[in-house]
Design brief:
By secondary structure, the chain is of the alpha/beta class. It is 25% helix and 28% strand. The protein has two domains: 186 residues, FAD/NAD(P)-binding domain (3-Layer(bba) Sandwich), CATH 3.50.50.60; 120 residues, FAD/NAD(P)-binding domain (3-Layer(bba) Sandwich).
């Protein structure tokens, strides 16, 4: 293997977004000379979000893509080598750890910070893409504020959907829960909360055929009764998809301890994984909060833990 296909680094960060970039800022300032591979979606899920109003330090709000550019520039200012590319294979059996890029290059790293995030599951409708960020969202706590006093729909029947509907019910005028079966999959406690919220209406046995709009924003949804085929139209201004997230952990299966949903298990109060020297930050290990600010916090933790681990190893 030629030297152009092989490289040794102190700290490899896999994935960008708030967790990856914050880890990079701290690691670079600690002189770990981090190398980051961004993944295909440079900046992560936030690049698909329009307004971000709940991240500290932006009193007037900011768009997701601009915030990610700010974080990238900050990481680069301290010397992070940010590379657009994908890590396709990881080998944590021996140290230094090995990671193979999509171009076939092998990176040998003394320590690795994983910040590959999670991907929201979508219904697969073309109208979802058309109105994403303009009425369609996969995060109530991120975007619910923009729908104060409006009519909203939430798709899903699990705990996440019930949580999102309950949260949105405090903000919106009316919340429709679109459930494809005749029962909720959520825990009993979450079911009771939804059933006892007066402005939540559950539409049972229905699937979403189309999200409708005026070309700029969402104005409604066309639903189909899964049993009778009957069509039902509802007028809404917000459409929230809450059918789950998929953590981006495929390349780590069989090496890192994952929970039953595929999220990386970390030591409580830490970003340490079951392999010494490998740390995980952000949504790839957090299926509870899934916020930019919590991802950034764990990115900071991962870099500090990586620095201390490297110091103890020397």
């Amino acid at each position: 293997m030629s030297s152009s296909e092989f490289e040794k680094v102190d700290c490899l960060i896999i994935g960008s977004g708030p967790a990856g970039y914050t880890a990079a800022i701290y690691a670079a300032r600690a002189d770990l000379k981090p190398v980051m591979y961004t993944g295909m979606q440079m900046g992560g899920q936030l690049t698909t979000t329009t307004e971000v109003d709940n991240f500290p330090g932006y009193p007037k709000g900011v768009t997701g893509p601009v915030m990610m550019e700010d974080l990238q520039h900050q990481a680069e200012r301290f010397g992070t080598d940010v590379r657009f590319g994908i890590i396709e294979k990881a080998d944590f059996q021996n140290r230094p750890f090995k990671a193979t890029t999509d171009s076939g290059k092998v990176i040998e790293a003394e320590t690795v910070i994983i910040a590959t995030g999670a991907t929201a599951q979508w219904l697969g409708l073309e109208s979802e893409k058309t109105y994403n960020g303009h009425g369609v969202s996969a995060c109530a706590t991120c975007d619910g504020f923009f729908y104060r006093g409006l009519d909203i729909a939430v798709v899903g029947g699990g705990d996440t959907a019930c949580e999102e509907a309950s949260y949105l019910a405090k903000l919106g005028r009316k919340v429709y829960m679109i459930v494809r079966r005749d029962e909720l999959r959520a825990s009993k406690a979450m079911q009771h909360r939804v059933m006892n919220t007066p402005n939540i209406e559950i539409i049972w046995n229905h699937v979403t055929e189309e999200i409708t709009g005026d070309g700029k924003v969402v104005t409604g949804a066309r639903l189909k009764n899964a049993k009778t085929g009957e069509i039902k139209n509802i007028e809404i201004q917000g459409f929230f998809v809450a059918i789950g997230h998929t953590p981006n952990t495929d390349i780590f299966k069989g090496q890192l301890d994952l929970d039953n949903q595929g999220y990386i298990k970390t030591v409580p109060g830490s970003t340490r994984t079951n392999i010494e020297g490998v740390f995980a930050a952000g949504d790839v290990q957090d299926h509870v909060f899934r916020q930019a600010v919590t991802a950034a916090g764990t990115g900071c933790m991962a870099a500090i833990e990586a620095e201390r681990w490297m110091g103890a190893k020397e």
